[in-house]
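Molybdenum ABC transporter ATP-binding protein: structure tokens wanted.
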Amino acid sequence: MRASFGFRRPEFSLELDLDVPPGGVVAVLGPNGSGKSTLLGCLAGLLVPDTGTISLGGRVLTRSPRTHVPPHSRGVGMLSQDALLFPHLSIVDNVAFAPQSRGVPKARAREVARRWLAEVDAAGFGDRKPAQLSGGQAQRVALARALAGEPDLLLLDEPLAALDVDAAPAIRALLRRVLRSAAERSAVEGPAAEGSAAERSGRACVLVTHDPLDALSIADRVVVLAGGRIVEQGPTRDVLAAPRTPFTASIAGLNLVAGTANADGVRVASGAELAGIAAADVVPGEPAVAVFPPSAVAVYRAGTSGTGSPRNLAPAVVGSLEPHGAVVRLRASGAGWAEGVTADLTAAAVAELELQPGSAIELSVKAATIAVHPSGA
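Answer:
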């Protein structure tokens, strides 16, 4: 799938260039209002771009302003956070609806439906009605229905957002298995592989999510949108390990300090410096970000940081203290690079230091734990 288009409205515009190879899974991340839903709408044919082209498997779906294939003829399947099953149909007929809508005879469509229900571990639900299913079971069926239509492109719009904490991991694992299986069969068996054309070639998939775990476990690549533009993209683990925008750093659970690259690291607007290890593509004088985990931040009561001379030492105050799994997450407030920085401490350390919101502290970070990258903002 290749999409290079512009969608413009008075209050918002989306300009992007996106490639998803057959069998590839791209996760799209971004804050609210960044353009994720608009992207899916354009790919699905529900919205018409003002400029550009969208093509799938060598077939032009949209070429503004004259060519626009309607949604039902695009070979695109979609799964949202709501299963949206037909309440009056049995589960097998819900899934069979997809191939039937493409002209497949009813008996054959039901065979396809039962195959996909088995594929998503829902074979025992065929005779039930949607009201008899749990949220996780309904989402399995919705995935089977989306795949039964043999789409060349599968769009996943926050598919796990409405599931409880028990159901989400199972559906996440299911998505990974189902999305990988066709691509792996194609790679091993080539054109002789059994199944639909989409399965033989490996269907492309675009996953919109707010959860970095979805991106890490399901996607090959990540695209980060902000203000209708792609600001970061690359292999999933690389992007989340070395974020270049505040949004990506926040979902990856990392601290990010923006400034200007210098010989030692980053200089922030106040003039304070944060020393770190610069990536090869960092250019002195250009915008850059320093990235480091909360676990790398040492916290001291003001005036007690010791007799050493750490390169990265900044005064601050405790802004907040919140439970964060097995640790306490401290968020600092202060001048220079300390503003908004988070640190993870044990409950015992918080008690020993007698920390509370408003406490005067000092933050220290070893330069060896700080990675400096060009800014994506």
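The chain has three domains: 2-241, 246-292, 294-367. The CA atoms of residues 154 and 205 lie 5 Å apart.

Cheers.
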